[in-house]
Amino acid sequence: MSDLLFATNNIHKLREIQEILGNNFKILSLKDVNLDVEIPETQETIEGNAAQKARFIRETTGMNCFADDTGLEINALDGRPGVYSARYAGEGCSFDDNIDKILMELSGIENRKACFRCSICLIMDGSEYLFEGRVDGIITKERQGSDGFGYDPVFLPDGYRQTFAEMPAYLKNGISHRGKAVLKMVRFLKKQ
């Protein structure tokens, strides 16, 4: 089993990625390496944010690491919230605040198509690698389900009758944007 440092303070992402990786790799959190820092996230794209976070942690720790960034892109909102998905309702907002804001903005709108995109930047031995995943779906008109986190209660992936928040973890992780990006990274790591 190999250890990988995940450049995040988000315990939900940490748990989800460990579930996807299974026993192939042990994910180390920033807490595991006694690092308590605010990771910069100032880029205009999710790819840029993933790279910025990974570079910051690599420079701070000297360890091989990876970071991800995820965005929900809604067609009727011109791709918003996108790179601002985590703080769409403002600094210090909750997941519920973000959901309330998009549901209000989509009120009365029939086109509810959306996608989740995830970019993972892996830095190993000084080289950077980018892995991406995407899942298409729609935004429901109300919350459904209580599992998952973020926008999961209102995201219904194409071809399914359950939102991400209603799905068992193994199903969500098998079809999600993050799951697809992580599996690409795992395939790459197994070849190393």
Outline of the structure:
The protein is of the alpha/beta class and 192 residues long.
CATH topology: Maf protein
Q: List SSEs in N-to-C order.
A: EHEHEEHEEEHH
Q: Kindly name the structural category.
A: alpha/beta
Task: Outline the biggest β-sheet.
Answer: 7 strands, mixed
First-residue to last-residue Cα separation: 14 Å
Q: Count of helical segments?
A: 5
How many strands? 7
Residue runs with pLDDT of under 50 for 5 or more positions: none
Gross geometry:
globular
Radius of gyration (CA) equals 16 Å
Task: Tell me roughly what share of residues is in helical segments.
Answer: 25-40%
Proportion of residues in extended strands: 25-35%
Q: pLDDT average, as an integer? A: 92
Provide the CATH architecture: Alpha-Beta Complex
User: For this structure, what is the CATH class?
Assistant: Alpha Beta
As for the number of domains, it is 1
Describe, in plain words, how this protein is organized in 3D.
Strands 1, 2, 3, 4, 5, 6 and 7 form a 7-stranded mixed β-sheet that branches. The protein has helices spanning 11-21, 46-61, 95-105, 169-175, 177-191; strands at residues 2-6, 25-28, 65-74, 81-82, 113-124, 127-139, 155-157. It has 5 helices and 7 strands. The longest helix has 16 residues, at 46-61. The chain is 31% helix and 26% strand. The model has no long low-confidence stretch (mean pLDDT 92). The chain has 192 residues and is of the alpha/beta class.
